[in-house]
Amino acid sequence: MKTHRYWGGLWALMSLTVQAQTTEEVTVQSGRLAQKQLDAPASLKVIDGEAIRNAGAQVNLSEALAQAPGVVALNRNNYAQDVQISIRGFGARAAFGLRGIRLITDGIPATTPDGQGQASTVSLTSAERIEVLTGPLAQLYGNAAGGVIQTFTREAGVQPEAQVSSTVGSYGLRRNDVQLSGRAGDVGIVADYSTFDIAGYRNNSAAQRKQFNAVVTTQLQEATRLKLIANVFDMPLAQDPLGLTEAKRQENPRQAGANAETDRTRKSVQQNQIGAVLAHRFHNDLAMQWRAYSGTRTNLQYQASTLAVRAAWVGLQRDFEGLGAQLQGKVRDAASGPVDWVIGLDADRTSERRQGGATTLGEKSGYLTRNELNQARNTDGFAQVNWHWTDDQGHNPYTFTAGVRRSQVQLKNTDDLPLVDGNGTGQVNYSATTPVLGVTWHAANTLNVYANWGQGFETPTLAEAAYTVQNNTPFGLFNTALLASRSQHSEVGLKWTPSAATRIDAALFHIGTDNEIVTLQSTGGKTAYKNAGKTQRDGAEWALKNDWTPQWRSQLSVAWLRAVYAADFTSGTSAIKSGNRMPGIPDQQLFASLQWADQGFASAARPRPLGWSASADWIARSQMWANDLNTADSGNYARVAGLGQLNLRVRHRQLLGPVRAELWAGVDNLMDKQTVGSVIVNQAAKQYFEPGLPRNWMAGAVLSMAL
Q: Which end of the chain is more exposed for a tag (fewer CB within 10 A), N or C?
């Protein structure tokens, strides 16, 4: 894509600076220590509840993440495989779920010890904000920390409230939600129940979901606070339309992939999770926090047949649990300035029964061909120190940051059917010490310049270690030969508020990785992996938020990323050349938004102002590749063209007696561009492409009332 076609003229428009209302400063997680967003020595994006609600139907995490620079959030429109999210190129290879990044909800990990995560379980209808941390400080969260996405459920206000909402849209989209919140003394609760179903744009793409999310907070004592979290996710049906070859996509993007309808490819998921976070403050300069969680997840998937492989099913039954603790303090009378510090421990475990067998016309048939127990666990310790160096005049020109994490991860497999395709029993242990160093120059009260360096590592997931290639065919033998990839991250950036109305964030980064995990061979729904030599990611990110007047504001985020293989390697029988682009990663991205509100925008004091509001969002990205070979010949076309897409929203809020009513409507892809929503990296049958939606609409109503 010639990106200047979409970006030309926007720079001048979005860079206008006019004096307006004061921008609110937010406290965020800067590594393992909380700081004001402006002072945090890292690339950190906060997406508030208003932006989450305005982004779409609050179904997919990708709706809101499109505005975060450095994040590639691709909507597969395939609820059997979840959205595709990568941060600075980490996670792009995932064929389903999340890889290479960590997901945390209300302080509880939603990523398992091996680095797998599921974005679909995040309850967006009750989310207060999303924080996206990228760069070296993310390494303090451990395995697969290409970046960290944290979501936070809103807390109950003083006034009890009931809220109901309903959304309808193209292709049979329906989402309904009921939310109750209130306080009784020192106890507050937010409980949210939502349903979602859709017929789907493509054949064999219908889905149904039900989700319950509840957070209870209570002040046990003046210095002790307890948060209880319960989440239930039930997806009884998610049909899988599979990917399409480029020829099939051009022929008819609404069709399903080969044999999807004959074999009735689909998935069902149920996940239940509870957690607790207990915080106690011993005194003003010393506090402790404990967390504990436990849950179960059941996953049943029906796969398609190929010319060489019969259709099959895979069933997973997972138990997971974890504990964590951290001690945090401040030394105020330290030499040359105060010191903030934190030390902590994380211990997490998952145990997953994996079974499989053949299917006939989409139903189980015959005997088990796979029955094994996959286990993963980690035991990690971490520490971080922020030294706010103070000169003789009492000024704080510099803040120095240092951190380290010691990680130990074990992957283990017990094969209970060793005579079917060989004994897949095996175990592998990974360990890493990942340091982080940084400095922030407080050039002015409104300008911070920072530089960071850190090391990271990423183990293979249990799914990636599930197959070994023998005689040019993937077999269900646990792959103990896979190494963890090791990365070095360097970043420099600035945060500047030149006026009360304007905020600018910019960052340059370089990431070098050894032993990147890549596809070795993929066929018949089975993918085996290997380690490549080296990869390199170089990029720049820039974001601007500007309030023109109390009624008008704009937002712009731009990202450049060159992610390449830095050494030759082979994938199967194919030679991958140094300099090839890593698949699933566009070189350039842009998000631009122009917003208007006749009564002003939401703030902490006015969370949902009345009146009319509207927004226009422009989303653009350059071309990207779907395979390691970067091929564009007719028989193996793997290039995705760039896109530019315009989305519009309008909403109106008013009081109807005791009821606050909100009506809204939106159109996505207004210009009806034919797009690719996401890619299935290195797909064996060259069915790389999952089509994006053409012009589509949605509308909704929200009614809330104080109780």
A: C
- Please give the mean pLDDT across all residues of the chain: 90
3-state SS class at 62? helix
Q: pLDDT at position 598, please?
A: 95
C-alpha 295: how far from chain center: 20
- The arithmetic mean of pLDDT across residues 381-404, rounded, is 91
Q: Where are the beta strands (DSSP E) in 463-610?
A: 468-470, 473-475, 485-499, 502-514, 517-523, 526-531, 534-547, 552-565, 569-571, 574-576, 588-597
Q: Residue 386's pLDDT band (boundaries 50, 70, 90)?
A: very high
CA distances from 241 to 51, 281, 282, 471 (A): 30, 52, 55, 30
Query: Which range, 28-42, 375-389, 470-484, is most confident?
Result: 375-389
The predicted-structure confidence for 180-201, as pLDDT tens digits, reads as follows: 999 998 999 999 999 999 999 9
CB 155 within 8 A of CB 128: yes
Spatial separation of the C-alpha atoms in residues 469 and 467, rounded to whole Å? 7
* Structure confidence at residue 4 (pLDDT): 43
* Gyration radius (Cα) of the chain, Å: 25
Q: How far apart are CA 378 and CA 350, in angstroms?
A: 9
The answer to whether the beta carbons of residues 150 and 130 sit under 8 Å apart is: yes
* Helices assigned H by DSSP within 221-364: 246-251
Residue 412 in contact with residue 376, Cβ under 8 Å?
A: yes
Q: How many CA atoms lie within 13 A of 112 on its CB side?
A: 27
Percent of the chain with pLDDT over 90: 71
* Cβ within 8 Å of residue 333, ≥6 positions away: none
Coil vs helix vs strand at 171:
helix
Average pLDDT on 661-690 reads 93
Q: Which amino acid is at 600?
A: G
What pLDDT shows up at residue 475? 81
Beta bridge partner(s), residue 368? 357
Nearest to residue 123, comparing CAs of 28, 211, 55? Answer: 211
Residue 374 above 60 pLDDT?
Answer: yes
Could you tell me where the beta strands, DSSP code E, fall in 98-254?
102-105, 108-109, 127-134, 147-153, 161-169, 173-184, 187-198, 207-221, 224-239
637 contacts 631 by C-beta, under 8 angstroms: yes
Cα gap 513→555, rounded to integer Å: 33
Residue 660, by phi and psi: left (phi above 0), alpha (psi -120 to 50) or beta?
Answer: beta
- Provide φ and ψ at 14, rounded to 5°: -80, -15
Among 541, 519, 474, smallest CA distance to 70 is for 541
Q: What is the pLDDT of residue 25?
A: 64
Nearest CA to 273 out of 221, 318, 340 is that of 318
**Cβ(180)–Cβ(71) below 8 Å:** no
For 423-490, the DSSP string reads ---EEEEEEEEEEEEEEEEEEETTEEEEEEEEEEEEPPPTTTTS-EEETTEEES---TTPPPEEEEEE
- In this predicted model, what pLDDT tens digit does every residue of 69-83 receive, in sequence order? 999 998 889 999 888
Whether pLDDT at 28 is above 90: no
The pLDDT of residue 13 is 36
Q: How far apart are CA 74 and CA 60, in angstroms?
A: 10
Cα–Cα distance, 433 to 403 (Å, whole number): 11
- Please state the φ and ψ torsions of residue 510, each to the nearest 5 degrees: -135, 135
Measured CA to CA, the distance from residue 78 to residue 256 in angstroms comes to 11
